[in-house]
Amino acid sequence: MDSLRIGLIGTGSVVREIYQHLYFHSDYSHQLRIAAAADPNPESLAGFCDAHGIPPERRFTDFREMLAKVELDAVQVNTPDSLHAAPTLAALAKGLDVVVPKPLSDTIKSAHAMIQAARTGGRLIGVDYHKRDDPRIREAAGRVRAGAYGTFQAAVVYMLDKLLVADPNHEPRFFASPDFAAKNSPISFLTVHMADALLHIVGLRPVRVRAAGWRQKLPSLQPVPVNGWDLCDTEIVFENGAAAHLLTGWHLPNSAHATTVQSARLIFSDGLLDLGLDTPGCREIIAGGIFERNPLFRNFEAGGRVSGYGISRPGDLYRRILAHRNGDLSAAAYAAYMDPLETGFWTTVICEAAESSLRAAPLSATGAAAGESVEVRGLLRRELGSAAASYLTMAGA
Ligand SMILES: NC(=O)c1ccc[n+]([C@@H]2O[C@H](COP(=O)([O-])OP(=O)(O)OC[C@H]3O[C@@H](n4cnc5c(N)ncnc54)[C@H](O)[C@@H]3O)[C@@H](O)[C@H]2O)c1
Asked: From the CA of 296, how far away is ligand 1's center (Å)?
């Protein structure tokens, strides 16, 4: 086959902002045929299907009906994090391959179930952590893993959004629901990206995770206050004893030079690496201020082609699936694509550990909380029982 018949499960914001460009205006589009879409939200479903000519008989409010009625090769599960597992398991049971946006899932248990089901059926799950395709992250991973700077010792990583991302009083509202920043945290929304990028650069597994958080700005918002975290610090200790702090939040003044202000400094036994991720070199001075654009992520080219690592990462996941369905993937490549680091399993472990550390921490009168360390080995054993052993062996923990 030279193209994949794809069923979309969820047609919300991430499809509008990223994936519709992949499906219809990218170098990958000729290999992707959007055969059907399912979403219980009629506006979301009609908005996508009307714009892209998906006929009424291929629109579904229930993904199970879509899986039963339409011949597909793969699905993309674009549902909220906590709803990735059920559609993925249903699609795998039908012999389909699956792409999910980050994260693989929000819990260790469901992430494990998804990986196991894919392995049992010999199918692929690809998780779209697009930062892995950012040329700066790729270069860093290549150099670090080749030992260019010696032994990894420590890192400080920042990812801070403008307040408008979390503020339901801002017009237009960034997220549809006013309680987004109360129901989600900077850990689930932002740390997840940076933890995955860092894991990818250093190629090490986490052994201990602790989180701290601050709630000072969001509760003061008017007229709608938000009962959520402004800022979180996730401390990760790796299997070689290195430590990293990942500071993520969404309370920077809206005058910030980028929607997401982000950078990283990594320190090694023989050197240091700085990643200025929010200064990609495309700066504009306009009436509203001075802003950094990131064409590396999503590049709207003259002529309508959309490129960038936001497109190439999921595009490559589909190329893997196409090769696999054509019988062109070697056993070694399949094993590499289903490795726990590659499928994002360890990133889910870090985020669940950080969330549980923070959840158990008492909040001080000043709105600060400092959680206790969570041992990854114990957490995996509690969540997975005897199945934890395979991951712990791989982690050398
Ligand atoms: N790659 C990235 O940087 C990036 C960016 C944003 C979101 N995401 C991820 O993409 C996923 C979706 O996020 P979003 O921002 O598009 O959320 P969203 O709320 O805008 O859209 C989710 C859609 O899923 C639909 N849905 C819910 N339950 C469903 C079900 N059972 N079957 C089919 N559809 C269902 C909802 O109706 C909604 O239209 C999340 O996992 C999120 O973390 C990734």
From this structure: 23
Are 248 and 194 contacting, i.e. CB atoms less than 8 angstroms apart?
A: yes
pTM to 2 decimals? 0.96
Query: What distance in Å separates the CA atoms of residue 167 and residue 223, rounded to the nearest whole number?
Result: 10
Kindly give the distance from the C-alpha atom of residue 64 to the centroid of ligand 1, in angstroms, as a whole number. 17
Residue bearing tokens 């199970």: 64
Average confidence score pLDDT of the chain: 96
* Ligand 1 pocket residue status of 59, Cβ below 6 Å: no
Among 79, 100, 174, 313, which is best to mutate for testing ligand 1, by the most ligand atoms less than 8 A from CB?
A: 79
Work out the number of other CB atoms within 10 angstroms of the CB of residue 237.
17
Instruction: Report which protein residue has its CA nearest ligand 1's atom 27.
Output: 79
pLDDT tops 90 at residue 152 = yes
Q: What is the mean pLDDT of residues 361-385?
A: 98
Q: Assess contact for 6 and 73: CB atoms under 8 A.
A: yes
Share of the chain above pLDDT 90, in %: 96
Q: Looking at ligand 1, which atom is closest to the CA of residue 189?
A: 43
Band of residue 200 on the pLDDT scale cut at 50, 70, 90: very high
Domains of the chain: 4-130+304-342 (3.40.50.720), 132-297+346-395 (3.30.360.10)
Kindly state the average pLDDT of the residues 213-234: 97
H or E element, residue 64: helix 63-69
